[in-house]
Design brief:
With 220 residues, this protein is of the alpha+beta class. The protein has six helices and twelve strands. Strands 1, 2, 3, 4, 5, 6, 7, 8, 9, 10, 11 and 12 form a twelve-stranded mixed β-sheet that branches. The chain is globular.
Length: 220
């Protein structure tokens, strides 16, 4: 069983909060809490490890949807700690890589597309546009304490399997390396894990998301 590094997860959480414009993480209930304050998410509790004595009572105290428990462990390890009626989302995966791996393996951008890099404060965005100036792929990075976190890597459906995701990763890795950073991290979906593995990323830990479904809102 893979056990996540709490320091690494804490730095990832800081970068995630910056990337999403959320409040910075605070220590709460033996984990980290990020107040997201968005229509689809009130906040999230993040645990780098399975802590039954903390997670079980916390889950029991949550009485509304849109408050998420995020645990760096498999669903099988998390499910017994949840009250009945909770949902577990599709699996996620914490992954790490040296930036040099992406620079070595990622494919060049196909000639018919244009790459644009935009820097806004501490976030660097990469966008790829097609010949009609429509966005074909995108992604962003945030660097915190020597760790570059990749976030919101997306390729439009019609451009899947054209190497655009790899091109976005390569461009962002090159941007990060300019500042002397060597290490990277991201949270992957099952589909994304395949791409990142092909680019040299390694699995750091499982990542399970649990929450009450909307029908369980006891305050409505």
């Amino acid at each position: 069983m893979l056990i996540a590094d709490p320091d690494l997860i804490a730095r990832w959480a800081d970068a995630w909060a910056i990337s999403r414009g959320a409040a910075m993480p605070v220590a709460r209930d033996c984990g980290l809490y990020i107040h997201v304050d968005q229509p689809d998410q009130i906040g999230r509790y993040i645990f780098a490890q399975v802590d039954a004595e903390a997670i079980r009572p916390l889950a029991a105290s949550i009485d509304r949807p849109l408050l998420y428990l995020k645990v760096c462990a498999s669903a099988d390890a998390v499910r017994p700690l949840l009250p009945s009626g909770w949902d577990i989302a599709a699996p996620g995966y914490m992954m790490t890589a040296p930036l040099s791996v992406m620079l070595d393996r990622s494919a060049a951008l196909p000639a018919e597309f244009e790459l644009r890099i935009i820097r806004e404060d501490s976030i660097t965005f990469a966008h790829i546009f097609d010949a009609a100036s429509e966005e074909a792929a995108r992604g962003r990075i945030v660097t915190v304490d020597g760790l570059t976190v990749f976030d919101r890597i997306r390729t439009a459906d019609q451009y899947q399997r054209r190497g655009l995701g790899s091109a976005i990763m390569r461009a962002l890795a090159a941007e990060a390396r300019q500042s002397g950073v060597a290490d990277a991290m991201l949270c992957a979906t099952p589909a994304g894990r395949e791409l990142y593995t092909s680019l040299g990323w390694s699995l750091h830990s499982d990542y399970t998301t649990a929450s009450l479904p909307p029908a369980q809102n006891l305050l409505s």
